Amino acid sequence: MVESLLDIAEVAERSGLAPSALRFYEKRGLIASAGRNGLRRAYQPDILKRLAFIACARSSGFTIAEIARFLVATPDDTKLRARMAEKARELEEDIARLTRMRDGLHHASTCMHEPLVECPDFKRTFENPATLTPSPGHWQRTAFPAEGDLSRPGEVPANL
Amino acid sequence: MVESLLDIAEVAERSGLAPSALRFYEKRGLIASAGRNGLRRAYQPDILKRLAFIACARSSGFTIAEIARFLVATPDDTKLRARMAEKARELEEDIARLTRMRDGLHHASTCMHEPLVECPDFKRTFENPATLTPSPGHWQRTAFPAEGDLSRPGEVPANL
DNA sequence: CTGTGACTTGAAGCGCGGTTCAAGTCAAGG
DNA sequence: CCTTGACTTGAACCGCGCTTCAAGTCACAG
Question: What percentage of chain A reaches a pLDDT higher than 70?
Fold first, then answer.
C-alpha cells in the first residue's frame, strides 16, 4: 500500500497537466501530496479524479479560488450552497449561449454570404432575446493555435 | 440620417461595455467608428448588434483575435471555415461539460455529504468517459463576487 | 474669450493562471 | 565516494483582456 503512490511526473503525464501547474494548485489549496519521497511529492492515485474534476470545473468557468472553496465545502455551508445553485443557473445561460454560438458557427461554416457575419440567417441567430450577454462578470477563453497556421487567416490589423 | 450616430458614451451605456473597452476593440479591429464629431467617436446604431455578437463570442470562449478574424471572414476563406466547423464541434464538448457541471452543482447544492465533493453521486457525475477534460488549450473564467462576502466561505489557505 | 467637462491619445498597470528560471537538494547508480 | 538527473524552492516573467493614468483636444455655455 505504501507503494501505490504516484510521482509528480506520473501524475503530470496522466492528468495532462504540467508539474508546475500541480505545484501551483497545491499552493492554492486545490490538492495536496500524500507525502514525500525525499523531496519529491508523492500523490495518492485518486488525485487523478480530483484533477479531472478540477479541469472540468476550470473549463466550466470556475476560478481557482472558487474551486478551492467548493472542494472544502460541507453541507452546512449554506452560503456556498446557495452560490452553487446560482452557478448552476448561470451555467444554464452559458449552455444556451454556447448552443447559439455553435449553431451560428455551423451555419457560417457553410454559408455563402460576403462577409459571413453579414448573413441575415447568421445575424438572426444573435438578434433575439436574452442569453446573449453573460451576466456581468463572466467569461471564458480559448487559446488559438500558436501551432498550425490558423494564426493568420484574415490578415487582421496586426497592430501591436 | 446624419444624426442617427451614437456617441461613445451612449454606446458604452447601451452595450454595457466600458468606453475603454470600445477603444480597445477598435484598436484590435473588432469595431470601427463611423466618423468623428470633433475628436469624439460616432458610431452607427448597428454597432450594438455587433457588440452583442462580440460579447456572445467572448463568453463562448473566443479570444479577441479569433473574433477579429471571424468578423472579416468571407466564404472563400476555407481555412477559417474549417476552423469554424471545428470550433462548433468543440462547443459541443463544452456544452456537454457545462451540462455535467450544472448537474453536479445542482446535486451538491442539496446533498448532505461531508465534504460535498466526497459524495459518491457527485463523484459519479465526473467519473465517466470523455467530455471531462477540454481539448488542450481551452478554458474559461468567472470572476467571483468581490462584492458580497462570498469571498470567504471556506477559509481557504489564504496564502499569497 | 474663458471655462467646463467629456472626450482623445499612448503608455503603464492589473488580475488571473500559469510557465520559466536560477539555485539548491536528494536517491540511486557506478 | 562522486556524478547524474529529476525533482525542490521562491521569484520573475508571460499573455490576455482590459482599466487607469497623465496629458492633451475639442464643442459648447456663459
Answer: 78
3-state SS string over A112-159? CCCCHHHCHHHHHHHHCCCCCCCCCCCEEECCCCCCCHHHCCCCCCCC
pLDDT, tens digit (0-9, with 9 covering 90-100), for B95-152: 999 999 999 999 999 999 988 999 999 998 888 765 666 665 455 444 333 333 333 4
Q: Write out residues 100-139 of B within 8 Å (CB-CB) of A.
A: 100-102, 105-106, 108-117, 123, 126-127, 132-134, 136-139
Q: Which amino acid is at B109?
A: S
- Report residue A93 CA to chain centroid gap: 16
A72 phi/psi in degrees, rounded to 5: -110, 5
- Total domain count for chain A? 2
The CATH number given to whatever domain includes residue A40 is 1.10.1660.10
| Per-residue model confidence (pLDDT) at position A154 | 37
Encode pLDDT of A115-141 as tens digits: 899 999 999 888 866 566 666 555 554
Residues B67 and B82 in one domain: no
DSSP conformational letter for B44 = -
Say whether residue B58 is in contact with chain A using an 8 A CB cutoff.
Answer: yes
The verdict on ipTM greater than 0.95 is no
Protein-to-nucleotide distance from the CA of A39 to the C1' of C24, whole angstroms: 11
Q: Are residues A93 and A48 in the same domain?
A: no
Residue to substitute from A133, A149, A151, A152, interface B, most B β-carbons within 10 A: A133
